[in-house]
Each structure stands twice: as C-alpha cells, then as structure tokens.
Amino acid sequence: MKDVIIACVGKPSAGKSSFLNAVTDATAKVGNYPFTTIKPNNGIAYFPIECPCKRFGKSHLCAPRYGRCIDGKRFVPIQILDVAGLVPGASEGQGLGNQFLDDLRHANALIHVVDVSGTTDANGKETIGYDPIGDIEWLRGEIHSWIYGNLNKKWGQIVRRHLAIKASTAETLHTQLSGYGATLVIVQRTLDRSGVKDAMDTWEKETIKKVVDAFLDERFPTIIALNKIDLPDSDKNISKIMRKYDQNKIVLSSALAETFLRKLAKQKFINYEEGTDNVQTKEDLPDSDLKSLDDKLQGRIEKVQDLVLYRYGSTGVQDVILKAVEVLGLVPAFPVKSLSTFANANGKGVFRDCVMIWPGTTVLEFADIVHPEIAKHYLGAETIGNRKIGEDDIITSENNIICFKTSQATHSSATGTASTTTGSSNQSSNSKK
Ligand SMILES: Nc1nc2c(ncn2[C@@H]2O[C@H](COP(=O)(O)OP(=O)(O)OP(=O)(O)O)[C@@H](O)[C@H]2O)c(=O)[nH]1
Ligand SMILES: [Mg+2]
C-alpha cells in the first residue's frame, strides 16, 4: 500500500518544476537553463472531485481531514514528483539519464511536460522555431530503450534460467521487470496487450521490443501537458500535435500563468478560482479587502486573461492532474461511522476521510487500507440505505460510502486514519485480479 505518485517528466526547461510549483505549495527552483533540477522535488496537489456531502445536504458540515470542500467540490491530495530533465541519449547515460530513469520507478503515472512554444531545443537550450512534435515520441522512445537495453543485454541468461526452472513467461518477465515497479498483474496485462503468445526462447529482438512497448502502456500511463501556451508560437504547434495524437491524453497548460495568478491571489490583489477563468480585482469588488492594482500589474493580468484564460478557459494545470487521475482510474471512497449523519460519535467530522483507491479494490482490502485493525476484526460492511455489501465486492461509485462493522471496538482513530491518496494498488501489490 503506497501513496499514488504522479511524476512530471520531459526535457530540461520544459517547465516541470514550474508545473510542480503551480499545482502544489512546493518551491522548486525554476531556471531558463537546462538541469536546473538535479534532485527530485515533490509536493502535494489538490484535485477536485464531487463530494457526497452535497447530495446528502451536509455541505455546511463537511469537514475533510485533508484538503478542503467548497459547496460539494472537494479537493483531494495527490503526490506530484518533479524529476531531472531527460536529454537525448539518456538511456545510455547522457545528462542525468540514469538518475532520471531511476526516479521514475516510484511513479504510477507520468505527466510529460512538453515546451510547445518551440523556444527550447531537444537539450533544453534556448532557441527559436524548434518543432516540439518530435519530443512526444522521443521521451517514450528513451524510456523504451532504457528497459529494452537492460533486457536485451542479458537476454541469453534470462532465457537459460527461464528454461532451467521451467517458469512461465509471466513469472520470468515479472522477475525481470519488478525493478521497474511491475507486479504480476501488470505483467499479465502487458502480455495480453502485446498479443505475444510464443515461447520465450523463440522471441526475436522485435518480440522483446513489442512486449516492452505494451509494458510502457500498462506501467506508465502518460498525460501530455503542452506547456507555455502563453507564448506566441504555441498556437501553430498545438494544432499540429492535436491532429496527430490522441486528444484524450493531451492538455494545454501555462504553468507560468497559474503561478502568477496564485501568487497575486495569495498577496490579496485578486480573487482567483483555480481551474477557471474567473479572476476578480478591486475594480470588480470595490467593497472587498482586495488591494488596488497599479497599471503595470493590471496590464499583466489582462495579458494573462487574453493569452490564456479567455482563449483556453483556464491555465489548464488542474486539468492535467485530473486527466492523470482519470487514466489511473482511481475511485474515491469514504469510510464513515454513521450512514445517517456521516459523522463521528460526537457529531463532528462529517465525511472526514476520502481515500482514492485503485480500481478493483475490494471492501475488505479497503478496510485494511483504512486501518489494519478494522480488517482484523472485520464483521461486515454496509453502504447507503444500510445495504449490506460483501467483503469481496469491488468498490465503485455506487457503494463507496462505507460503514464497517467490527467484532470489537477498534482504536478510536481506526475508522479514519486513512491518509492521503492510497490504495491496495494493482501496481504496487499483487492484489487478486
Ligand atoms: N512563458 C512560459 N514560460 C514558462 C512556463 N513554464 C515554465 N516556463 C519557463 O521555462 C523555464 C524553465 O522552467 P523550469 O520549470 O525550470 O523547467 P524544468 O523542466 O524544471 O527544467 P529542468 O529542471 O532544467 O529539467 C523557466 O524560465 C520558466 O519560467 C509557461 O507556462 N510559460
Ligand atoms: Mg526543474
């Protein structure tokens, strides 16, 4: 059971650290030169989900332990990792290649931050008119070469061992890929996806490549953030990329605009509703405690509105996180002590905990996530309408408000120590699927 981690990846100066700073309270160093980041930075971002408090008329009482809930829009924490930039040849150790690839082992999903403005070249150096379309495939290719290269180097030995111990293909691949965070479930899905059925000792180089390709899809679901949309040349590059790639995996963003707006909001110059184009100033709200703007600041805000907010509807950074959570298929689940008040014994803590769990997590697995004591003394579980649910039932949006019954009183914190975003991971454990 590990927290879910989403990693920002991409070439140097694409805006990975800026993105982290824009969506979390981290203060990663940002610079217009390659390899500003060497050691990974991390922060917690909050992404919005629909909170059941609204449906049950409890919005005014809703009391999240982490994040916040505003009129039924609940902001749930998730860990974001910002790693060193990757340059061509990284899989052969160029730049900070090996370290970068090592850091990736912890990630569950990737956000590939692409500088869509064409103002940085393949190595992250300042330029003009660079075509970013190649960056998308290049990054995947680099990760592919890293894994394929490592397998290919010792293929003879892998196959000899495979034959000697009469292992199944999945078992052998699992041993080889577990260093990249592969579980048996992921390996099985990889084999299904690749369509490869031949015995391992007959695999050609092309077969190994095909399997690695399928593995990348299963192990590292990726969202592409086309960043720096505020810059002039971004437009034409965006339309070119959108025509070529799956639009469901692409989000437009301006990390710079988001950082700017959040900073002004913090300094009380504006009211800014993250994820929207809604910016209000003292002029809009004369009776508010907002500070007045000088002409220069007013001009900068208008520029961000014209170039980003009014054009694209938002700075896009929140959409990037939402998409990444969506590709992982995480399900929000709410452990409660009472199915009528959703509160603690003292009437407080309404919908206090929200845990994002992996798809396929069962009720009993969820009990263990909330607190091992609950799983140990588990008697049963009920959902809305006091409807009984089985311990092997999969949790979905239909039964995700759950009251556990236990054979003895568990520790007072036991129904609600669920921390941030966690789960019985189909990535981090071999849960039954
Ligand atoms: N115009 C514009 N500039 C941006 C945006 N995001 C980042 N930048 C700028 O791009 C440069 C590089 O940003 P970083 O966030 O340091 O990039 P990085 O990907 O973390 O780079 P490395 O740590 O070197 O790998 C900085 O000058 C940022 O201010 C954006 O949305 N718009
Ligand atoms: Mg950086």
TrEMBL record:
The keyword Signal does not apply. One of its GO terms (cellular component) is cytoplasm. PROSITE patterns: G_OBG. One of its GO terms (molecular function) is ATP hydrolysis activity. Residues 4-273 form the OBG-type G domain. Keywords: GTP-binding, Nucleotide-binding. Residues 413-433 are annotated as: Disordered. CDD domains: TGS_Obg, Ygr210. Coiled coil: none annotated. This is Ribosome-binding ATPase.
